[in-house]
Amino acid sequence: MKKRHFKVVGFALAVLMILSVALVGCGNVDSPVQTPAAAPDGGTADTGTAAASAAEGTWQWGDPAWEAAVRAKVEGKTFKIGFTPPAASEFYDIIMHGAYTMMNELHDRFGVNFEFEFVAPSEHDAVESQVSTIENWATKEFDAVLVCTAGDFDSMNAVYEKATAAGTAVYLFNMPAELWDVDSIKATSVISYDNARQSGYLVGQYAAEKLGGEGKILFISGNDGHWTTSRREGFMEAVSEYPGLTIVGEQRGEYVRDAGMAAAENLLQANPDVDFIYGENEEMAQGAVQAVQAMGLKMWDGNEGIIVVGADGLKSGFEQIRSGGLTATVDVGSVDQGREAIKAIFMHELLGYSIDKVINVPTILVDSENVDVPEAYVDWALATTENYK
Amino acid sequence: MKNNEMTAPLAVKAKKKIDRQLLGLLIFVIAMMVVMSFLSDSFLSVSNLTNVFRQSVFIMLLGFGMTFVLTTGGIDLSVGVMLALSGGMSGWLLSMNVNIVPAVIAGVLVGLLVGAGNGLMITKLRITPFIATLATMSIGRGVMYVWTNSIPFRNYMVGGFRFIGQGDIFGLQFPIVIAIVAFVILQFVYRCTAFGRHVTAYGSNEESARVSGINTDKLLIKVYALSGLMAAIAGITLASRLETVHPEMGKGYELDAIAAAIIGGTSLSGGKGTLVGTVLGAFIIYLISNALNLLNVDPDWETIVKGIIILIVVAVEFLSHRNKKE
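Output (structure tokens, whole complex):
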């Protein structure tokens, strides 16, 4: 865990000292950190620059001999990966761009080529359409598929086993693996974050910290499903540690802005004296902010007002935090989920390293104090174009 | 009500039925207010009720268009998508620094054109309204994803545009004003114009309407274009209200709009409809949500309770009607 924290921080802040610790602490193999020098211009993922830095051996991952050995093993190979999120959305777009950054990097350094296909079902809960997508990819002899689905492990395990048996390795991303017994997961690995401990709990803690352990909370939840279950669990756990914090209302906002706003408006009518609103994603949280403002209530200014917190780590969320339209959010490590997933596939499938069943990426609670760091990381990923063939 | 309906001679029988249903709805709303006023302090306040009305405006506007469509015996499943496309067009143009007037006009045109396209498919290609608008819904949603690249349009708010969804006139929120104006105009159109009478006539008996010399193709194209226009107005208002256009904006609104019209007493099989009922229908849908939210009913139960109440409202009307017949 620790080393990945170092990775994000080291990358974004370009703090040399931390980088050196990360390198010493993690060994050569496991820490694909770019040098500070590569970070600013590598940020645009300009092929020329990236290729140049690879050639000059400035990638901070192993020594030249190791680089050469890996290159000898994978150069010229083409690896087919399918990527299927539960919906086409800004969030999954960031994860996909995170995957691009790692594929570009591996392509530049080791000469491995990727074929990458993206299919999202038209309906968020259309699990069966994702099942057929995975089956199709297995039939087309894809080497690996990256899956995130509203279907839980129990219902999806059959197709995971089937695809794996057909030679298509199944990797999951953005799935709350913490809700299931690790042994029951039939995918090769789950690259995600802990929705309870690394998202919901952080928000509860933030509430306790900002409110001094005392205040009234409104909770606007998403559609029932495994993400909501886990986030709520973490949030409730943190809140329950402070007897002064009470949840005075909870309603569903269906993960969309208009429903989130309507739920917040209705709840605020009954509880205009709340201190804190938790919207389980940023769209709902921003809807809640608009409800607060429309009712003439005061948003948090650092000392007083209503604190509104979301979760996702989208560009729009960061912009709102900057302009005071949203107090805070949880960046759930979308860029790293994409990067680590590709890296896990590369290490395990192409080089034969073992990997853990559950790989959780770092997440961070973002408010106006620290928004620069995660925003720059997401910007960098989103600006990356596909250059891995 | 009664005076207005004198001008609709074809619907004399339907009129009584509708009046009874409207009365039933009013009684339901009043009963709900009485009960709720005991259960919650904040329910019966002006600010809460205007809020509920404001929340229902978007479904109401879609419901107005839907009332015309349903009266012809058709259905329009694409209103949610037309709402998104129109709001998206205005938002997208504004984000490219286009002046607000052409941006809004372009948004309105998108709704009108897509709606007219529905009408053309239905009349010229003889595709049933359900299938034609289902296709439009699917294509339109896909266009939204491709067009936005799955990333919501945003950063398009300018002062004038903000007013559409968030401004006030004489203390009334502007979306409410839009709904009132739309209602008054459409009520006139529905009750007092040849177009409105033709819509009802066509829905009552398609063949006799055709025989009596109504250009039915033109009529239907106009009706679906009107539905598109209402969706566009709702979409542009919502784009201003939400300050962002999500590719999934308006998803599922078509079902709420249909529900609003049906609850209000408009018939799914055509021939009768009422805009007053649609106003009440849309208001009731949001009033139920609001009441359950204020009482902090477990969200898992909310949808169940909502569905049951809608069933009761419609069933009571049906049963009372049947009993009177017997």
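Strands of chain B lie at 153-154, 168-169, 172-173, 244-245.
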